Amino acid sequence: MRKQIVAFGEVMMRLQVPGYELLAQANALQYSFSGTGVNVASAMTKLGHDGFLVTKLPNNPLGDAAIAFLQRLGVNRNYISRGGKYLGLYFLENGFGQRASRVTYTNRLESSFNTASLTDYDLDLIAKQADVIHFCGITLAMTDDVRETMKILAKKVKENGGLVCFDCNYRPSLWDGGYEKAKPHYEDMLSLADIVMMNEKDAMYVLGMETVETSREAQLKDLIPQVANRYNLKKIAGTHRSINSDNTHSLMGYIYTDGEFSFSENISFSVYDRIGAGDAYTSGILHGELAGFSPSKTVKFAAAAGMLACTIVGDTPMSTEDDILSAMAGTIDDIKR
Hints:
Helix 5 (about 145-160) packs parallel to helix 6. By secondary structure, the protein is α/β, with parallel strands linked by helices. The longest helix is centred in the middle third of the chain and has 16 residues, at about 145-160. It has 11 helices and 14 strands. The protein starts with a strand and ends in an 8-residue tail after the last helix.
């Protein structure tokens, strides 16, 4: 069952304000390294697969520190290129109650990853060895060269029999041209994908699809089958998340496959660190697919993975299959001895 899982994406330095302070209040920051690709590759490693990251890091102490961080996570460095001077940065202010968490990006378009070219990666080798490759809509929002690399690599992996996973992850702050600019690139990636992470909002706003339904679940059930048919997708999965008045979160996962929906229970839980939960959910879906879980078990597994990611500091999911199965069964002990 052990597979080679490859993620294409930028490594960023995360600079976090301690506690629940604002940047304007804080006088210290905690740093680590992150990115959707980092999170997925690491999570899949924890789930028993071989996680690889395709990226480019600066050839300086910042890049060295990022490499050391990835090695501690168990992420394979074979597909990592070195060169350039910069890492993208983001500053995280933790939300509380009705105040949302806030992420502020800086120096991103000048990073080694976002100024890389096709020749920085051995795309043919990667495509031959990848059982699954993961791409993210955040990466798609970067530069024309990054988008070209994504599309060529996705096509090569597909031609070699690998699965292509695309997480829509639309971020308004990253697309200067808004939905109009994003749509053709999203359609290109959807046409190459096998497994897609998205919800009804992506269908309505990014793809411009219409529905007469008014509730989120009804919109989901109306639009997701249309997306699957239009782009010939094997699976579409995603979540509905809400914040409760007591500062807990609620999450319900879904997966659409073979013309049918499967839903997880709507689970509520306390949140220690919100960032990265979506990547944990995606990794749960991929693991369920590779492990041969039923759709019902897969979506419950993914929802539990997303929940557990919210209990761990940092972006990167750290739970094993046993951890997640225990959470699904409600058998996690107060203290493991």
